[in-house]
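Journal club side-thread
Mid-discussion, someone asked how the predicted structure for our own chain would compare to the paper's figures. Pasting it here so we can look after the session.
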Amino acid sequence: MTLLARRPLNPSALRAADNAFYDRHPEYVRNGYRIALSECNRRDGRSRAEWMRLYARHGGEVIQSDERRCRPVQRTQTPAPTTSTLAVCATRSGQPVAEVFVEIESRGQPVGGGYTLEDGCIAFEVQPDAYRARAEAPPSDPVTSDSVRVNAGESRTIPILLPPAATPPEMVRRIIARNWQSSSYHNMPGGPFGEPGAGGAGLGALYTPEATHLNAYANVPANYDVVKVVDEMTTHTVATGGMRNSGVHRVVRYTWGPPSPMVRLTVLRRTVTRGTAFPSHEQTTQDYAKKAVWRHTRHPYRHYLGTGN
């Protein structure tokens, strides 16, 4: 039974185990290349066990198994062939790329893996055979090379051409919510303050308005447009001691997305009166042509462009 790393491999534990192992064993570094440990080479047995312990210590998951991931070597009367060196070098737009996970396989079976160094390369000590290399460079899809034949005692290099890095979209500051809140206090007809009663015209004799206005913003891609609007308004009314307290809270929220000819508008209206069991509630949702939606709510660009609220 031997220790094996459970797949999928843990990239951070793999990198930490590699760094710790090769720092301890410079004999496995030749001409600046890290020589990968081979499951087919018995002399690497103790070193592989040490590497597995380092991998587990840094958070990788290992299992006990008698599985052989290396195909058996056919024993003949001729001397075993000399091992070869296979380097895999990853570049993007002509520049070397470090920290790319590379795995080599032979006849459909993985035989080694690791991360490229600052020069974009990683080297493996291999037996004479045909090999493919597979590189993982998120967010791009994995890249697989053509098959390369490595002869005894030969040094070969497999180039991996990674796709160009995606250009991040231009981001701009856009409004995502508009928040209004206001309240007013005024006398009720026939109240205790000496205003006219019995249907008199004393409403608003002690009127005091208060209002606040707050906007919220976020960075979104420059080509995005408003695709969804939620317009929510709640009116509170409380009558006590001859006074009426009326408050209005309105929030309009904007969702930005790829340009679309339609905008989904949801209008929600609530009226809450103290002393009633349930508030009144009215909601409508409908898709509108973009040119028509601004009949129902304020234009989201106006404040952003400095032309008023």
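Post-session note: Confidence is low (pLDDT under 50) at residues 71-81, 187-209, 301-309.
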